[in-house]
Design brief:
The structure is a single chain. This protein has about 400 residues and is an alpha/beta fold. It has 14 helices and 15 strands. Strand 8 (about 150), helix 5 (about 170-175) and strand 9 (about 180-185) form a beta-alpha-beta unit.
Length: about 400
C-alpha cells in the first residue's frame, strides 16, 4: 500500500488518497502536506469559532415564559408582546414552543417554535434563541436545576407560584425537565418596559447577577396585542416547511388568476362566545376593526357571528369586485362549500384544504388577492396583520370600511 499525494489547495486540483494501484513507492510533497494541514487547522478553528459564537451566554440575561393562554391566535398575540417586553428589557427572549391541544388527547403538545417560523428574521429586532437550544447548550452552565426560579404575578399559596399545576402548565415545563427551586412575584411591576422608569424597576428588582433567567408563568403581554406592538408582526416569517405547503396548494389546487381568501368562525363554541357581545366593550381581537378606542365603530352580533345569508352576499360582492377565479375557505366548523358554490358563478372554484392545517391555512390566506376575516377572532387577526405588512387589502364580516366616528357633542 502506498499514498499518492494530491492536496486540494482551497478547492484546487491536488488531494491525498490511498491507492493500491501500484506497488512502486510514490513520495509525498511535504511542503504540500504542510499547507494542507494548515488549511485543515484553519477550517477546524473556524468551525469551533462558529460553535462558540452560537452558544455564547448573553451577559444581559434571558426571559422565558409559558404561552399558556388559548390556542395559536392568542399565543401569537402574546408572543408579539413578549418580544417587545424582552427587547426593551434588553435581555434575550427564549422562544417557547407553540402549545397545541390535539382532539381528545388528555394533555397538550409542544411544537418547537422554528417548526412554524423562521428564527433569523426576529433577530433584526431582538436577541432570541429557541428553548431547545437554550436548554441544551446554555442552561447546564447558566441555569442549572438548583438555580431555577419561577416568576408569577402573585403567589398562589404561601411563597409558591404553582407554575406546573394543570395543563398546559405542567406539560410545558416538563417537556424540558424543568422544576423550580423557588419562586418570586412581580405584582407591582407592569409589562411596559418601553417606559424607562418601568424598565429600571425591573432591572433593580431582578438584577441579572441574581436572576440570569426570568422564567414567567405566563406571557409578559396583554391580550389582544397592544397597538404599539402590532408592527412587530413584520418579523414573523413562515418557515419553509409551512410556506412550501401553501405555495404547493395554490399552484396545484387554485386556478390561475385572483383568489379570495376567507376565514369563518361559526362553531358552537364561537356561538356561545358571541352571546357576550356588548357594544360598550371589546371582545377578543375586536380592536383590529373597531379601533382600540372604538374610533371606527361598535361591536354587533353580526360582526361576531355573521348569519349565513350575510356571508354569502359578502363573498358574492367581493368575488365580483376582484374578478376572483376561486375562493379559499379556512374555518373551524362547516365550510359551507356547497352553499357558497350555489351563490357564485359555476366558473368560480370554491375549495378548502383537507386535511386542514391551521398554519398552512394562514399562509394561504396571507397570499390571497383579498381576505375577509372575523373581526373578533385572533386567528383572523393573525392573517390581517400579515397582510397589512405586505400591503394587501382585507375586510371583515358585517363591518363596513372603517370611518372614524365623530366625537359626541356634550350637552350643556
Amino acid at each position: 500500500m502506498i499514498f499518492v499525494a494530491k492536496i486540494d489547495w482551497l478547492f484546487g486540483s491536488r488531494y491525498i488518497k490511498n491507492s493500491v494501484e501500484s506497488k512502486r513507492p510514490t513520495f509525498i510533497n511535504m511542503s504540500t502536506l504542510h499547507h494542507s494541514k494548515m488549511l485543515i487547522a484553519a477550517i477546524a478553528a473556524c468551525i469551533l469559532c462558529h460553535i462558540a459564537q452560537a452558544v455564547d451566554i448573553d451577559s444581559k440575561g434571558y426571559v422565558a415564559y409559558c404561552p399558556c393562554m388559548g390556542r395559536f391566535g392568542n399565543q401569537a398575540d402574546h408572543f408579539l408582546g413578549a418580544l417587545a417586553f424582552t427587547h426593551h428589557l434588553d435581555r434575550t427572549l427564549i422562544l417557547p414552543p407553540w402549545i397545541e391541544y390535539p382532539y381528545r388527547q388528555p394533555t397538550s403538545n409542544q411544537i418547537p417554535f422554528d417548526t412554524y417560523f423562521q428564527v433569523e428574521p426576529l433577530r433584526e429586532y431582538a436577541r432570541v434563541i429557541t428553548m431547545e437550544t437554550f436548554m441544551k447548550d446554555i442552561a447546564p452552565e447558566l441555569w442549572p436545576p438548583e438555580k431555577r426560579i419561577g416568576f408569577c404575578y402573585r403567589y398562589r399559596e404561601g411563597s409558591d407560584c404553582k407554575m406546573k399545576e394543570g395543563n398546559p402548565f405542567g406539560p410545558f415545563w416538563d417537556n424540558f425537565n424543568i422544576d423550580f427551586e423557588s419562586y418570586a412575584e412581580y405584582g407591582l411591576l407592569t409589562y411596559s418596559t418601553h417606559v424607562p422608569v418601568v424598565k429600571e424597576k425591573w432591572k433593580q428588582t431582578f438584577p441579572v447577577s441574581k436572576y440570569p433567567v426570568i422564567a414567567l408563568a405566563g406571557a409578559p403581554a396583554a391580550f389582544p396585542v397592544d397597538r404599539a406592538n402590532v408592527h412587530l408582526h413584520q418579523y414573523l416569517k413562515w418557515s419553509d416547511f409551512i410556506n412550501d405547503q401553501a405555495e404547493k396548494f395554490i399552484a396545484e389546487e387554485l386556478p390561475k388568476g385572483p383568489f379570495l381568501g376567507i376565514h369563518m368562525r361559526h362553531g358552537s363554541d364561537w356561538s356561545s362566545a358571541c352571546k357576550h357581545v356588548d357594544e360598550e366593550r371589546h371582545l377578543f381581537a375586536s380592536p383590529q376593526c373597531l379601533g382600540y378606542n372604538f374610533e371606527y365603530g361598535r361591536l354587533t352580533p353580526e360582526i361576531c357571528f355573521p348569519p349565513e345569508k350575510l356571508v354569502k352576499i359578502t363573498i358574492k360582492k367581493m368575488v365580483k369586485a376582484i374578478k376572483a377565479k376561486s375562493v379559499f375557505v379556512a374555518t373551524d366548523a362547516d365550510p359551507l362549500l356547497e352553499d357558497i358554490r350555489r351563490a357564485l358563478p359555476k366558473s368560480v372554484k370554491v375549495v378548502q384544504r383537507t386535511p386542514t392545517e391551521p398554519h398552512v391555512d394562514l399562509a394561504i390566506l396571507a397570499k390571497a388577492d383579498h381576505y375577509i376575516g372575523n373581526c373578533v377572532s385572533s386567528f383572523s387577526a393573525f392573517a390581517k396583520r400579515e397582510r397589512d405588512v405586505a400591503g394587501k387589502p382585507s375586510s371583515f364580516w358585517g363591518f363596513d370600511e372603517p370611518k372614524k366616528t365623530k366625537p359626541k357633542k356634550e350637552e350643556l
